[in-house]
Design goal:
Length: 193
Amino acid sequence: DAPPAEIHVSSQGLSTAQYNSLQTVMDQQKVSSFFTSDLQALRDITTSLAWVDQVSISRDWQRGIVVTALPKQAVANFGTERLVDAKGSVFVPADSSDLTQERFATLQGEMAQAPVIMQQMQQVNDWYAPLDMQVEDIILSPRMTWLIRFDNGLRVIVDNENTAQKLLNLSQLLGNQLSGRRDEMQSVDLRYK
């Protein structure tokens, strides 16, 4: 006959929108008493929120059941409706104003390919960093063709055959033989021999 346990959502590390989103979900949960509440069920519900990376749920004598969540940290835009974290996990943020951030590169392609696209962007950024070039947009088409646009305006198109080697070779060419002519280039097509 014990009263239902109180659910306390910790706001630590969360934006206002993330806190409100989590609080709304927790307010809808029917919990039993302090000792009999199913913490695993609450954990599962919390981790089902797209923007939640990790969650901790514990019992606290003063506050009741305490829910602490860590949000995913976006590192790039994925299209215009989603973000992607460093692991390549695509998610919808709790606050739509977090979408299409100027400081982020934009990745596009199938969501299942997000980790591959993320890895390719990081590799390309490493190779082109000595040239002071960063990926601004990277697209993987359904035909597995890569379209890369750098922050200096250069566009590169490359197919899925020896992609890494072609991109590495281009970075070396731009740093050496073609270093004086980089400003003249708008796009490079690496699909052909």
